From TrEMBL, chain A:
Signal peptide span: none
Keyword tags: ATP-binding, Nucleotide-binding, Transport
Identification of the protein by name: ABC transporter ATP-binding protein
Keyword Transferase belongs to the record: no
Superkingdom in the source lineage: Bacteria
Annotated GO MF terms: ATP binding
Residue ranges of every copy of the ABC transporter domain listed in the record: 25-273
Matching Pfam families: ABC_tran (PF00005), BCA_ABC_TP_C (PF12399)
Automatic annotation (TrEMBL), chain B:
Similarity comment text for this entry: Belongs to the binding-protein-dependent transport system permease family. LivHM subfamily.
Subcellular location: Cell membrane
Keyword list, A-Z: Amino-acid transport, Cell membrane, Membrane, Transmembrane, Transmembrane helix, Transport
TM region(s), chain numbering: 20-43, 50-69, 75-94, 106-129, 159-182, 211-230, 250-271, 278-303
Superkingdom: Bacteria
Main location class: membrane
Protein name according to UniProt: Branched-chain amino acid ABC transporter permease
Membrane topology of this protein: Multi-pass membrane protein
Segments forming a coiled coil: none
PANTHER family (UniProt xref): ABC TRANSPORTER PERMEASE PROTEIN (PTHR11795:SF451), BRANCHED-CHAIN AMINO ACID TRANSPORT SYSTEM PERMEASE PROTEIN LIVH (PTHR11795)
Signal peptide: none
From TrEMBL, chain C:
Keywords: Cell membrane, Membrane, Transmembrane, Transmembrane helix
Keyword Cell inner membrane: no
UniProt protein name: Branched-chain amino acid ABC transporter permease
Subcellular localization: Cell membrane
A Pfam family hit: BPD_transp_2
């Protein structure tokens, strides 16, 4: 399994080079709790421009909560988040979106009543501006705007090889394709930072290979920075430039894949050592 | 103006404590009746996740059947037993014809189906028993009809209707019985399992059909008790339908799944409505009872979107 | 066989995004419009126009309004009747304050008032969702009904407490009031309904329609993609209430001639909600089908016993109608929970592949 993915995936750039890159997002001493339950405790790490950053850890380690904090869905009780050099105040999710953060979800969160095309078009919402009265009229500016964005969307559809399901309601698609449409929807936002929450969960080998290829292509062709959560270690080790490991809401390791793989704490966390 | 809103009502409350107590009592009784309707909603919602819009109509329907049977020469107690039987048939029919084919449909579809049921029951009840308002057969059922006056201070007087006291007692007994039923019995546990997840409950061998029939029957009994109490206070007719909508703000306050919530919510709405109407209603021309309950619920909701007794919702993704 | 898109290639995105990309659909719509604008006026009698067509169109428009909010934006509303009432009272006040103005313009303008009130009652939707939102709209329903009764200014201090439509002429033709011909009313109602339906079809295929559907399907994901939930929902409330308001104004001006607060009661709200659900949530054509079913069925039921020679009391028929409508609602929900629009789509799919099953 490991070997096959390696063959397909384009080798990531060496870690040494990425270390010099500009920091896109920095998380400092963030803690988050719900009532009395601590989901995240005092976590700090950064994401550099252009890299693929993996967040891994056993179930319940706080990975998804971490992504939710990054795109403003949860507000941490402590700690700061620095986005493109600016410390972020408490922000709403839609503000995060307009700042260039897009994401996909662990359990597919597509708009079930809409077609593939409309789902991906919905990613362009922020970039479309014609107001209500132009929309009423449709013919003219509103239609032109729609067509202009449709072209972009068609490029993404081509890139993800989902031309055939363009007009299919997404509720009818198999799981693997839904994940792909969801990636397309996030890409349509042309984000600076793309958060992927378990992009390969529940996929078979071929689908995983395809998805890995798309992720690497997005990173290299569009230069999009990616932060991803994934359980498949083969995929994580092959794709990512740097890995941060969480366990019980705490950070236990951070570094290039090889280093993390050898880390004793990480091995303990995954194999289970009595605490 | 400000004096009228903020000071005068309280001065009146202090000056005429007997009137205030009477208002409180009225509010209490109205609240109990709202709570009883809400209780029927909660039962069905807990066990099937269905928001049963027809509950209010079931109250009227049960009352109407009871009175209608009696009018046609059936002795009161036999009519009562027959009405219980009718509610059983209704429960079985609803489960068979409405719920079973609609299993696993979205909430709004099930809600619509119960609104359809509402229309059907209104039509059916009036078709069989006629549309004109009827008198509840309070005396024949052996319910108390008198009233007692209590003197408050030197010149005050508070009048308590015995039927209202009976209503309160019956409500308390019913809530206690339901609480035991839900928490202590095997069927009660099955009910809660079904409420959580239809499919999961099926997969561990709980018969959905049986559970639903039981719960609709229980709601039918609650409706019958409510119908009798309510009918004793006013006439039995489908005009009560509007009042039945008041169960919705009650549920909002109490949370859709909480039995104590339904009681507390009912009382808050009952008190709030009567006090609001009698002390503040006059300022805007009266009749504010028709909407005050909703506004009270709305204000609560803005501060506690999950209701008084609901758990805090943590949104996940 | 007859309904096939084979051979109809689209060479531009513009053509692909047309309202009805398939030729047969366009022909079908054209036929319907010809019937509505030419055949019916030429052949129908007054009874058919006043008792069936005009109410049907008014209800269709109201159902479109509610469908925007509930079907496309996912916000359940039980206050449609009251929002229609706001439109009616606003139109009544406008025509009495500006007696010389064009009554059609006044009717269209009255929707603005119900839009504003709808938006106010939509404010809690930011925090309140699903069934809980129903209580907000119920509050609107009962509060506004109370206002219609308690604020005499709204009905010009009439002793009866009802509003009576004044006599108004548009370009020399009597448009409203008791003397207006059914034909004139029919054309006005038809024109307004078709016009608004077309505008809505435009909005729904563009950015704003999409943002409503995003909120409906998955509000959290929509927000994470940059949709502002409050603004989007309020817009849906406003647009929906505008349309309902216009429908309510048309109801009294071009159909009933007079209305009292009870005309806009919760019963009306439910009636419109039935139309939307039976027609199909999230479908404009469904709104028409639902309105046709809910309005025309009772009318037919009223006349069937008479035609069959059975003499029944009016009351009995009314009760039976309630029963039958209730039972049919349950029946149709079981057969196809997504309404007539979905049934129609399935039928079209069958036609496409006919004579083969798949």
């Amino acid at each position: 399994m490991n070997a096959i993915v390696k063959e397909k995936a384009v080798a990531p750039e060496p870690a040494a080079e990425t270390a010099k890159r500009e920091v896109l997002l920095k998380v400092d001493n963030v803690s988050l709790s719900f009532g009395g339950v601590k989901a995240i405790t005092d976590i700090s790490f950064d994401i550099q421009k252009g890299e693929i950053r993996a967040i891994i850890g056993p179930n319940g380690a706080g990975k998804t909560s971490m992504l939710n904090v990054i795109n403003g869905f949860y507000h941490p009780q402590e700690g700061t988040i620095t986005w493109q050099g600016k410390v972020r105040r408490k922000m709403k999710p839609y503000e995060a979106a307009s700042n260039g953060i897009a994401r996909t979800f662990q359990n597919v969160a597509l708009f079930k009543g809409m077609t593939t095309l409309d789902n991906i078009m919905s990613g362009r919402s922020l970039k479309m501006h014609r107001n209500f009265f132009w929309q009423l009229l449709w013919h003219g500016p509103a239609a032109n705007e729609e067509i202009e964005h449709r072209k972009k969307v068609e490029e993404i559809i081509d890139f993800l090889e989902i031309q055939a399901i363009r007009k299919t309601p997404v509720g009818k698609l198999p799981y693997g394709l839904q994940k792909r449409v969801e990636l397309g929807r996030a890409l349509a936002m042309e984000p600076d930072l793309l958060l992927l929450d378990e992009p390969m969960a529940g996929m078979n080998l071929e689908e995983k290979e395809d998805m890995s290829r798309f992720i690497v292509d997005v990173n290299q062709e569009f230069g999009t920075t990616i932060a991803l959560i994934e359980h498949d270690m083969g995929v994580v080790m092959d794709l990512s430039d740097r890995v941060v490991v969480l366990d019980y809401g705490k950070k236990i390791a951070d570094g290039p894949p090889e280093e993390v793989q050898a880390n004793q704490d990480v091995i303990d966390a995954y194999l289970g050592v009595s605490h | 103006m400000l004096y009228d809103i903020f000071i005068d009502p309280f001065v009146q409350m202090y000056d005429m404590p007997d009137f205030f107590l009477q208002v409180l009592w009225e509010g209490f009784v109205a609240g109990i009746l709202y709570a009883l309707i809400a209780l029927g909603f909660v039962l069905i919602f807990k066990a099937s996740g269905v928001f049963n819009f027809a509950q209010g109509i079931m109250v009227v329907f049960a009352g109407l059947t009871l009175v209608g049977l009696n009018e046609n020469g059936v002795p009161a107690y036999l009519a009562l037993i027959l009405t219980i039987g009718v509610m059983g048939v209704l429960a079985y029919g609803v489960e068979r014809v409405v719920m079973r084919p609609l299993v696993n449909q979205p909430d709004i579809i099930l809600l619509m189906a119960t609104i359809g049921l509402t229309y059907f029951l209104v039509g059916f009840g009036e078709f069989v028993f006629g549309g004109e308002p009827k008198q509840m057969i309070t005396e024949q059922l052996g319910l108390p009809t008198g009233s007692t006056a209590f003197e408050i201070g030197e010149r005050g007087l508070v009048i308590l209707q015995h039927i209202d006291i009976a209503a309160a007692v019956i409500a308390v007994l019913m809530v206690a019985a339901l609480g035991i039923f839900f928490n202590k019995t095997r069927i009660g546990r099955a009910l809660r399992a079904v409420a959580d997840d239809h499919q999961a409950a099926l997969s561990v061998g709980i018969s959905l059909n049986q559970i639903w029939a039981i719960v609709w029957f229980a709601a039918g009994l609650v409706a019958l008790a409510t119908g009798i109490m309510w009918g004793a206070r006013s006439d039995v007719s489908f005009a009560l339908e509007i009042v039945a909508f008041k169960a919705l703000p009650v549920l909002i306050l109490g949370g859709f799944t909480s039995i104590p919530g339904a009681i507390v919510g009912g009382l808050i709405i009952g008190f709030g409505e009567k006090i609001g109407e009698l002390y503040w209603g006059g300022l805007v021309g009266g009749g504010i009872e028709s909407w005050l309950a909703y506004i009270i619920a709305l204000v609560f909701l803005l501060f506690r979107p999950q209701g008084l007794f609901g758990e805090r919702i943590i949104e996940r993704i | 066989m007859f309904y096939r898109e084979a051979g109809q290639f689209k060479t531009s995105y513009k053509a692909d995004q047309a309202l009805m990309p398939i030729l047969q659909d366009r022909v079908g719509l054209a036929v319907i419009l010809i019937i509505a604008f030419a055949v019916i006026p030429a052949t129908a009698n007054d009874f058919f126009l006043t008792s069936i067509m005009i109410p049907f169109l008014v209800f269709s428009l109201a159902a479109i309004g509610l469908n925007i909010l509930t079907g496309f934006c996912g916000q359940l509303s039980l206050g449609t009747g009251a929002f229609m009432g706001v439109g009616a009272y606003a139109a009544y006040k406008l025509t009495s304050i500006f007696p010389d103005a064009n009554v059609i313009v006044m009717v269209l303008l009255s929707g603005v008032f119900s839009a504003a009130i709808g938006a106010v009652f939509g404010l809690p939707s930011l925090r309140i969702k699903g069934l809980y939102l129903a209580v907000t709209t119920l509050a609107a329903q009962f509060f506004l009904e109370w206002c219609f009764i308690r604020i005499p200014w709204l009905y010009n201090y009439n002793a009866s407490g009802a509003i009576e439509v004044p006599h108004r002429e548009v370009f020399g033709i009597v448009a409203s009031g008791a003397e207006a011909t059914p034909l004139a009313r029919y054309f006005i109602v038809l024109g307004i309904t078709v016009f608004i339906a077309l505008l809505m079809a435009n909005v729904l295929r563009g950015r704003i329609g999409r943002s409503w559907m995003m909120i409906r399907d998955m509000d959290i994901a929509a927000e994470l993609m940059g949709i502002r939930p409050l603004r989007t929902k309020l817009m849906a409330f406003a647009v929906s209430s505008y349309i309902c308001g216009v429908a309510g104004a048309m109801m009294v001006f071009f159909w009933l001639n007079a209305a009292e607060p009870s005309s806009y009661s919760i019963r009306l709200s439910f009636q419109i909600l039935f139309m939307v659900i039976l027609g199909g949530l999230g479908s404009l054509s469904g709104a028409f089908m639902g309105a046709a079913f809910i309005w025309i069925l009772p009318v037919i039921l009223k006349f069937v016993p008479g035609l069959m020679g059975i003499d029944l009391a009016a009351e009995t028929i009314e009760h039976a109608t309630f029963m039958i409508v209730g039972a049919l609602i349950i029946f149709f929900l079981i057969v196809e929970p997504h309404g007539f629009a979905r049934l129609w789509a399935i039928a079209k799919q069958k036609l496409r592949v006919w004579p083969f099953p798949y």
